[in-house]
Amino acid sequence: MKCFYYFKHKIRSKAPTSAPELSNPASNSDITGSNLPANSSCSTVSGRSINDLYEEKSRNLRVFSLPELRRATSDFNRLLKIGEGGFGSVYKGTIKPVDGTAEPVVVAIKKLNNDGYQGHKHWLAEVQVLSIVEHPNLVKLIGYCTLDGERGIQRLLVYEYMPNRSLDDHLFNLAYPALPWQKRLQIIYGAALGLAYLHEELEVQVIFRDFKTSNILLDEDFQPKLSDFGLSREGPTHGRTHVSTAVVGTHGYAAPDYIETGHLTARSDTWSFGVVLYEILTGRRSVERNHPRTERNLLDWVKQFPADSKRFGMIMDPRLENEYSLTAARRIAKLADSCLVKSAKDRPKMSLVAEQLKEIIQIPDNGSPNTETTDSVDNEAADFNDKKPKQNAASEQLKRRVAQLAKLSEHVDGKRKFLIMQRAKEI
Ligand SMILES: Nc1ncnc2c1ncn2[C@@H]1O[C@H](COP(=O)(O)OP(=O)(O)OP(=O)(O)O)[C@@H](O)[C@H]1O
Ligand SMILES: [Mg+2]
Q1: For this structure, is 210 an active site residue?
Q2: Site residues for ligand 1, CB cut-off 6 Å
Q3: Which is catalytic among the residues 168, 210, 257, 378?
Q4: Which of 54, 163, 270, 328 is least enclosed by beta carbons within 10 angstroms?
Q5: CA 126 to CA 33: how far, in whole Å?
Q6: Is 111 labelled as part of a ligand binding site?
Q7: Confidence check: pLDDT of 119 > 80
Q8: Selection from 96, 16, 27, 20 nearest residue 60 by Cα
Q9: Strand 88-95 relative to strand 233-234: parallel, antiparallel, unpaired?
C-alpha cells in the first residue's frame, strides 16, 4: 500500500470548504491518536472523538494550492526560511485574504519533508487537532495544502506568523538579549494554560507529546503559543488510565515512564513541563552535550542544588544578573520537582500547575530576594572553592558560566531533534 493511499483528496473546488479525510477507517485510530477503532476513540462522555469534532470544524480552514504557497514564499526562497525542525522547513510568506480586499497577511508556512506516510500522519494530526482548538496560547492554523503527485506527496501547513520566534531562541541563543525574569514567568504561565486547555477543557483530551522550548512560539507581545501538534494524540478513553503507543518525542523532555512502557497520559506532558521549568531557571538545555560530563543532563545536575538549600542560587541563569526573586525561583524549582516525580499519577495536573504559577508571578522581584541570591551564591562558591575570598567566589563562578555559555553558543544549531521511535508494548 502506498503512503498516500490513506489520504483521500477531497478538494473539488477552490472554495475553502474541504478537509482532508481518511479513506480507511482502520487507519483513523492510528492517526488521530488512539489504537482503538475510530468510533470508539473518544475521550469524553459525549462519545465524540477528535475525528468527529474535526469533521464538524474543518470548514474553518482554508485550502491553499501549491502555486499559491509558492507565490507566497517566492518559490520557497531560502532567504525566507525562518526555521527547520525534525519534520520540515518553515518559511515566512504573505497571502491574500480570502475576500481579496484587505492588506496581504504575513504567515508562516511549514513544508513537511517528503517522508511518505509518517509525514502524512504528522500533518494530519496537526490539521485535525488545530482545527478543533481555540485558545490564546495555541498557535492558529490558517489552512493547509496537500498534493499527491507522481513525484510523491506534498503536505504544507499555513499558520499565523509569530514574530518573536520561539522560547528556545530567547533562552539559549546568545544573539538575543537575555529574557528578563518576569517575561520568563509570563511565558511559562501562558504555556501552562495552553496545556491545561488541551488536557482538561476540550470535549476530547489532547496529549501534546512534544512539549519543549522550541515549540513555544512568541507573538509580538511575547505571549506564548504552543505549536507543533504533529505528535499529539487523543487521551485515554472509557475509563482507561493511558494510551498504549509507540514512543515518540524529543530526548531530554520525554517522561521516563513513557519511554520505558509506551504508556502515554496527560502527565507525560506534565513531566516535559517540569523539564522546561528548569530550563527557564537555569538558561541551560535539558541535554547539553558540550558541558562537562556531570553537567550534561540538566535534571541530574540540578539535583545537587535542592530548592531549599543554600546552594540553590548556583543553578540560576547568570544572564539574569541577579534580577529575579529567589523566593519565586525556589517555588518554581519545587513546582518543577513535583512535575518530575517518578510516578506519573502523582504529578500535578496542568490546571494546578498554572494556578501555582499565577501565584508565583505575583511575588515581587525587588527587595530581599536579590540579597538572598548573592548570599547563597557566595556560600555556594565558598563550598566549591574555599581558597578564594568569599565575595569573589560568586562573581568568578558567574564569569565561568558566562564564558561557558558563550562557548556553547558557537555549537548551537537548530537541529537537536531526536525522535525516539520504539515500538511500544501493547496493553
Ligand atoms: N508560526 C510560526 N511563526 C514564526 N516562526 C515559526 C512558526 N512556526 C515555526 N517557526 C519557526 O520555525 C522554527 C522551526 O519550527 P519547527 O516546529 O519546524 O521545528 P522545531 O520546533 O525547532 O523542532 P521540532 O521539529 O523538533 O519540533 C521554530 O523554532 C520557529 O523559530
Ligand atoms: Mg517545533
Answers
A1: yes
A2: 82-87, 90, 108, 110, 139, 159, 161-162, 165-166, 214-215, 217, 227-228, 250, 414, 417
A3: 210
A4: 163
A5: 11
A6: yes
A7: yes
A8: 16
A9: unpaired
Q: In terms of DSSP H, where are the helices of 113-224?
A: 116-132, 167-172, 181-196
Distance 212 CA to ligand 2 centre (A): 8
Confirm whether pTM is higher than 0.90: no
Domain ranges of the chain: 48-161, 162-367, 386-426
Dist CA 403 CA 253 (whole Å): 26
Amino acid identity for residue 107 in this structure: V
pLDDT tens string 168-197? 999 999 999 999 999 999 999 999 999 999
The answer to whether 69 touches 146, Cβ cutoff 8 Å, is no
| pLDDT range class, residue 366, cuts 50, 70, 90 | low
Domains 48-161 and 162-367 share a fold: no
Name the pLDDT band for 280 (thresholds 50, 70, 90).
Answer: very high
CATH 1.10.510.10 for domain 162-367:
yes
The CA-to-CA distance between both ends of the chain, in Å, stands at 27
Q: Which residues, at least 6 apart from 98, have a Cβ–Cβ distance to it below 8 Å?
A: 16, 62
Ligand nearest to the CA of 173: 1
Place of cell 509506551: 262
Homologous superfamily of domain range 48-161: Phosphorylase Kinase; domain 1 (3.30.200.20)
| Residue with grid cell 482538561, as numbered in its chain | 200
* Grid cell at residue 187: 511565558
C-alpha 38 – ligand 2 centre gap (Å) = 27
Please state, in angstroms and rounded to a whole number, the distance separating the CA atoms of residues 357 and 189: 6
